[in-house]
Design brief:
There is one protein chain. The protein has 18 helices and six strands. Strand 1, helix 4 and strand 2 form a beta-alpha-beta unit. The longest helix is centred in the first third of the chain and has 21 residues. The protein is of the alpha/beta class. The chain has a domain of about 290 residues: SGNH hydrolase (Rossmann fold), CATH 3.40.50.1110. About 45% of the residues lie in helices and about 5% in strands. It starts with 5 loop residues before the first helix and ends in a 37-residue tail after the last strand. It has a six-stranded mixed sheet, with helices on both faces.
Length: about 450
């Protein structure tokens, strides 16, 4: 880093971007480009392969997902791109059965490479899927983690899209020749409708000879800003433990033991509320009420964006595995969001997957499973184990009770009268419903 800290470099680049970008695009482009190249060579780390004693796949931090070259260059062998949002913030200090531990600290032959952050929904992932697809080689299976909150009335946090927009990813999406003209036009229209600067849109699409020059300046400036964050991103990547560093296969995780561990940890951490969520979360958020009065049928734009995301996967020869997260049954009952409303949401998402021929992991039968959730939204101690096992089975080419769609048929799920009721009485201590239908490889 040539003697500068990551924070100092980021400050320098931020100032350069704010003061010079528009001026560089409008006039003096050559001088601007020369300055960018000089800064690039003098102080910024490269966006390619980093030190191999760290594990980068599970890092959740601002900016990482926008640097596709860095993410793909540092994917673990056997890992797959996993597109999602805030569920990836669940780390081992909160949930010891999270993927960072179950896969990242062992040698199972399978890993997850997180792409996405909070408030990044289907449209953002349309763009990221198209951008990342050009960099992937070999196995092109990807996971798409679909959050129910994206489909709240008004399409969740779609109005905040412009604050999450990545020029770099959008230009890489536009540069992908596999993307159809119809899809390009759809995404362009949605990006514009959600407030992205029209000049940036024109540049990424190379509308005119002048916009070609604009594109070079925008992309270089954005890459510099992103690369100024690499020092922090790399520092957050954990060192590989002895087991991981040795590289000796550890075999398939013991799923039954992990479920038992998840129940035990959940029991210890959920003691002050009737919703089986983490005590610290409940202390801070017990009075939250933003889900009251919500529904899942006033989000047509988000459903259309999700359908388009599946279409992008098809155009780019990606094989998607959609993770349909459950809605927290006890909490949403409390908030007055009916079981019928929730079931209609699941059916609509499954229907879009079926139309696209996409496989999915359907966890809708886990709405009432104790300790599935860390809080009222995100997977927790048992939930992550369910997801990990189904993901592992899919990657191994095996059937699984939560796998549906594609060649899998209907997902069987947990043993339960229906998905709107608690899935049995739980174990002897009343802690969790852990039984699944026949076919689970645990």
């Amino acid at each position: 880093m040539s003697g500068k800290t990551g924070q100092a470099v980021e400050k320098d680049v931020s100032l350069l971007t704010r003061r010079s970008l528009l001026a560089g695009v409008g006039a003096g482009l050559s001088a601007f480009a020369v300055g960018c190249v000089a800064l690039d060579r003098l102080v910024l780390p490269g966006a390619g392969r980093a030190a191999d004693w760290r594990l980068y796949d599970y890092v959740y931090v601002d900016g990482k997902s926008n640097i596709s070259s860095f993410v793909v260059s540092n994917m673990a062998e056997g890992s797959h791109i996993c597109l999602g949002s805030s569920e990836f913030f669940i780390s081992k200090d909160r949930v010891s059965t999270c993927p960072q531990v179950v896969f990242g600290e062992h040698v199972t032959g399978v890993d997850m490479t997180y792409v996405g952050e909070t408030m990044e929904q289907s449209l953002w992932h349309c763009i990221s899927a198209g951008a990342y697809a050009r960099r992937l080689s070999g196995d092109r299976r990807v996971m798409l983690v679909v959050s129910p909150q994206w489909f709240f009335k008004g399409s969740g946090d779609a109005s905040k899209f412009s604050s999450k927009f990545s020029y770099s990813l959008y230009q890489e999406f536009c540069d992908n020749p596999s993307i159809s003209n119809e899809t390009r036009a759809y995404v362009r229209g949605r990006v514009g409708a959600l407030g992205v600067d029209t000049k940036q849109i024109a540049a990424a699409n190379r509308d005119t000879p002048a916009s070609v020059l604009d594109a070079a300046a925008y992309y270089e400036a954005d890459q510099l800003l992103l690369r100024s964050k690499l020092g922090d991103i790399i520092a957050r990547a954990p060192a590989k433990g002895d087991v991981r560093w040795a590289g000796v296969p550890t075999g398939e995780p013991d799923w039954a033991q992990l479920i038992a561990d998840g129940i035990a940890e959940g029991r210890r951490r959920c003691t002050n509320n009737d919703y089986y969520v983490d005590d610290s979360f409940w202390d801070a958020h017990s009075n939250d009420s933003y889900q009251v009065g919500e529904n899942f049928h006033e989000a047509d734009d988000e459903y259309a964006d999700f359908a388009r995301l599946l279409g992008v996967c098809g155009e780019c020869d990606l094989t998607p595995l959609v993770c349909i997260l459950p809605i927290h049954g006890l909490w949403y009952d409390h908030c007055g969001v009916s079981g019928d409303e929730r079931q209609a949401y699941y059916r609509r998402v499954r229907g879009l997957c079926d139309e696209a021929g996409a496989s999915y992991m359907d966890f809708s039968s886990c709405e009432y499973e104790r300790y599935f959730f860390y809080d009222t939204t995100h997977p927790g101690w048992v939930g992550w184990v369910r997801i990990e096992q189904s993901y592992f089975d899919f990657m191994m080419g095996r059937d699984d009770p939560f796998l549906g769609g594609g060649s899998h048929g209907e997902a069987a799920g947990l043993l339960s009268p229906d998905a709107t009721q608690a899935a049995g009485d739980g174990d002897a201590n009343g802690d969790a419903a852990t039984s699944v239908t026949s076919g689970e490889g645990s």
